[in-house]
Amino acid sequence: MEDQILRLLQKKQLRNTPARRALLDIFLSKGYALSQGELEALTEDSFDRVTIYRTLKTFEEAGVVHEVLDNQSRVKYSLCQDGCGGRHHHDNHLHFKCEQCEHTYCLPNTLSPRVEVPANYEARQVQVLVTGLCEHCREEA
Amino acid sequence: MEDQILRLLQKKQLRNTPARRALLDIFLSKGYALSQGELEALTEDSFDRVTIYRTLKTFEEAGVVHEVLDNQSRVKYSLCQDGCGGRHHHDNHLHFKCEQCEHTYCLPNTLSPRVEVPANYEARQVQVLVTGLCEHCREEA
DNA sequence: GTAACTGCAAAATATTTGCATCCTT
DNA sequence: AAGGATGCAAATATTTTGCAGTTAC
Description:
Two copies of one chain form a homodimer.
Chain A: H1 2-11, H2 18-30, H3 36-42, H4 49-62, E1 65-68, E2 76-79, E3 94-98, E4 104-107, E5 122-133, H5 135-140
Parallel strand pairs in A: 3-5
Antiparallel strand pairs in A: 1-2, 3-4
Chain B binds a DNA duplex through helix 2 and helix 4.
């Protein structure tokens, strides 16, 4: 894991700092999208919240994480799956938010469906948020 | 228009108050999704911002407006098209956000596509946000 | 050494709650 | 008259900016 983190930072030409290592560690171990507030809590306030905001922005611009749509209108971030870089993100998969645990997962083996928009509209990107029950919460119900 | 507003309020059993009339008037004339802040500006501060927040919440619970997903993570609202009521919303259409003017439109003649989620996940709702250029901004480009 | 990263203070923005008052029905 | 709607004050949450000190390379 530690190795994976260092390689990722190197690959994206980002400096190896404690805040970045800590956030990447959390992203890798949690596996679902996280907001600044959640990251602040999970790091037990080891880092200033401004640092977390800025680190997330840096990560996004470097193609390490991407923003995830959330129906509660909170910005969450998730690790990029494929070779995103610069401002070119192509995280073209669905996102699934569980109504119960409120975690948001990337569904990487899915593709956003083609959608029809009216003539005269130019569609450039399609973001899909599916809500329902995740496998874990479904078992409990 | 005035007539339409009064009928809508009556149909949803909501009291006929200045704030509600003003907000409905804006929704009907603008035709795109609006946030609390935009509504506050458009009403030229005639109403306290708390009133706008509460009116929007009331509208949503009554099935007058529905929340619209926004990729900037700001909550916007749009008039319901069909017979939404109570907490049962079935505004099952796509939303289109223009990258240029940043307005978000409902595309009522579209239906959210069926999507495949992994087994063990239970999908209950699909929300789709298409981004691109609206017809108006496309002409100008 | 230098540029980049971080922490702290502070401001700007967004949202919610309680309470007293006013208005709709 | 009664319950609901509104305004005001204030608390909370979220995000951004500036600057000075520190760290990675």
